[in-house]
Design brief:
Order of helices and strands: HHHHH
Structural class: mainly alpha
Number of helices: 5
Largest sheet: none
Helix content: over 70%
Shape: rod-shaped
């Protein structure tokens, strides 16, 4: 491989890379539609010219045919008048016009075929442009979505995610610890309150029991200073709450 070929390939590869990098899909799509629209305008102009040329040849053909018929009638008139030379001249003119008409007919047939083909090509181009416009909108939407996704990924990559997540987890742990401390304080406050009420209730029971014992002793003994004998059983002090609970238990046993 020669040096020139190698240099040429390097230059072309660099140019292709530069062009590919500079291409914006949305702009290229818009430009492609503009180019196709321009081609469509040129195609329509070509079809219009071909149709105009076809009509002009059609007019020439009809005129030549009319002239040939006219000279044929004149030849007949000359023969009727006995002028054979004039009739021959008229037939010569008729022949010329007939040949011209035949040539124009051949050209006209070719133009008709060409015009029909141009019309088909025009319809095909219009259909392709319509399809290209639809695809252009779809492709531009996909390009926009791809750009948005690329921007999102770039943003996520540039973010210090690990640091942010670490801070988030620390704050979550701190909130949990604060909630635990608050719950523990609440439980401690409730426990202290319960203990205070338990002490009050316990003290009341003792006082009630002591009063009941004093009343029993004072009511059963003739002498307030006399203590019961050692072998006599001491009646247990009565408690209305205990008696009521005892009666409730008996009732439940009877219902079983």
């Amino acid at each position: 491989m020669g040096l020139f070929d190698r240099v040429s390939r390097v230059v072309r590869s660099n140019l292709n890379a530069a062009v590919s990098g500079a291409e914006d899909p949305e702009k290229i799509l818009d430009q492609a539609i503009i180019d196709m629209q321009e081609d469509l305008v040129q195609m329509r102009q070509a079809v219009a010219k071909a149709i105009a040329s076809q009509k002009r040849v059609q007019q020439q053909y009809e005129r030549a045919q009319s002239e040939a018929n006219t000279w044929h009638q004149r030849a007949q008139l000359a023969l009727q008048k006995g002028d054979e030379n004039l009739a021959r001249e008229a037939l010569t003119r008729k022949k010329t016009q007939s040949e011209t008409a035949n040539t124009l007919k051949t050209q006209l047939d070719g133009q008709a075929t060409q015009v029909e083909q141009l019309k088909k090509n025009l319809i095909g181009l219009e259909s392709k442009i319509s399809e290209a416009k639809t695809k252009k909108d779809m492709l531009k939407a996909r390009v926009s979505a791809a750009k948005a996704n690329e921007q999102l990924q770039s943003t996520m990559t540039s973010m210090n995610t690990s640091s942010a997540m670490g801070a988030f987890e620390r704050m979550e742990e701190k909130v949990l610890m604060m909630e635990a401390k608050s719950q523990a304080a609440q439980e401690l406050a409730g426990s202290d309150l319960e203990s205070q009420f338990a002490a009050l209730e316990a003290g009341g029971d003792v006082d009630d029991e002591l009063a009941a014992m004093k009343a029993q002793l004072s009511g059963s003994a003739p002498d307030h200073n006399q203590l019961p004998a050692a072998d006599e059983p001491v009646a247990a002090p009565k408690d209305a709450a205990v008696d009521a609970e005892l009666e409730e238990l008996k009732t439940q046993l009877d219902n079983l």
